[in-house]
Amino acid sequence: MRQVNFVLIFVICLALVLFGIENTEIVSIKIIEGLEIKAPLSIELILAAGVGAVFAWVFSVWVQVQSTLSTREAIEEQEEQIEELQADIERYKAELEEQQRLLPSASSGSSN
């Protein structure tokens, strides 16, 4: 998978460089009313791609955090269920021992 990622990033960077070589004209971008930036088209494209990459990275981190939190919640629920089941086992063992103690012993009934 790393090789595929490397090739993909390499191809995108190569395309940006080739695009930048061919598009050096100064263009203006209006960000908000009254704020206008003039720079070569290739620089503006590279900046836009960089901002997009940062947003994609932030989104990826956010998804990983959510996944970690949901996994942690599931583990806590499972631990609670395990504790409940262990308590049930102990209770059943105690009940079984009590029932065995109340039963007449097999050795006293067979000696008659």
Describe this structure in words.
Residues 22-90 form the Lipopolysaccharide assembly protein A domain. Keywords: Cell membrane, Coiled coil, Membrane, Transmembrane, Transmembrane helix. The chain crosses the membrane at residues 6-24, 45-63. InterPro entries: LapA_dom. Helix content is 79%, strand content 12%. It has 3 helices and 2 strands, in the order αββαα. It has helices at 2-22, 41-102, 106-110; strands at residues 26-32, 35-40. The chain has a two-stranded antiparallel sheet. α1 (2-22) packs antiparallel against α2. It is rod-shaped. The mean pLDDT is 87.
Features of the shown structure:
single chain, 112 residues, mainly alpha, two-stranded antiparallel ribbon, LapA_dom, transmembrane, LapA family protein
Strand order of the largest sheet: 1-2
Cα-to-Cα separation, first versus last residue? 79 Å
Structural class determined from secondary elements: mainly alpha
Mean pLDDT: 87
Low-confidence stretches: none
Keywords: Cell membrane, Coiled coil, Membrane, Transmembrane, Transmembrane helix
Protein name: LapA family protein
InterPro entries: LapA_dom (IPR010445)
Compact description:
It comes from Lyngbya confervoides BDU141951. With 112 residues, the protein is mainly alpha-helical. 79% of the residues lie in helices and 12% in strands.
